[in-house]
Amino acid sequence: MSPASRARARPRVASGPGPAGGGGDRRRLLIAAVVAVLVIVAAVWVVGFTGVLGVRTVAVSGTRALVADQVRQAAAVRVGEPLARVDTAAVHDRVAGLAGVARVAVSRAWPGTLRIIVTERQGMAIVGRDGGIWLVDRDGYVFQRLAARPRTLPRLDVAAAGPDDPATAAALGALGALPPEVARQVLAVAAPTPESVTLTLTGRRVVVWGGTAEAAEKARVLTALLRRPGTRFDVSTPGVVTVR
Q1: 204-214: burial string, b at 16+ Cβ within 10 Å, e else
Q2: pLDDT tens digits, one per residue of 32-86
């Protein structure tokens, strides 16, 4: 075999890193993965188990009759508690349990604020209970005792005022259907049953409202009828009304 043939027959050795180079790459990847895990663990520890991102402020908004400190006391959130670990659902339920609270929204505002937005109930009528005068909202919740009777709210006369009482719902539904100029004239609304609602207006006028059906039409007809003289207005069947 000639020298040139022998040279062509020699095997070629592959270039590039050998086994030692591959092992180095694996070690670097392993170290990077360990560092990443340690960073994540450290971040979780700082956020969830230390006061670095703890609650510094409980910000309360939306209160009218309530004061912010009442809401903070009900929320029962400790200053310095990790913000990430605050049970916002539990805070919501505790604040919602306050008399006069209709809705609550709880949220986190990083780095250290817990926000509580309160929507209070608004009185639509008053009702006598336990020897006192109480506010009732449009949903039938009896929520606040008053020192004196307000002149701007009508009296609700039902057997057992409450959000699950059909007579309460019928009476408040009649009030809610009235336009403001008529609602301001109502002194009392009574509902012995859900189908027998009556309204007592200023000037010794009485409105026979009836049941909950056709409330908008009854309100429209009544608004027109009140321009006539009379003391008894029956709109229980709005297609056939009477004035006496």
Answers
A1: ebbbbbbbbeb
A2: 666 655 445 444 444 444 445 699 999 999 999 899 999 999 999 999 999 999 9
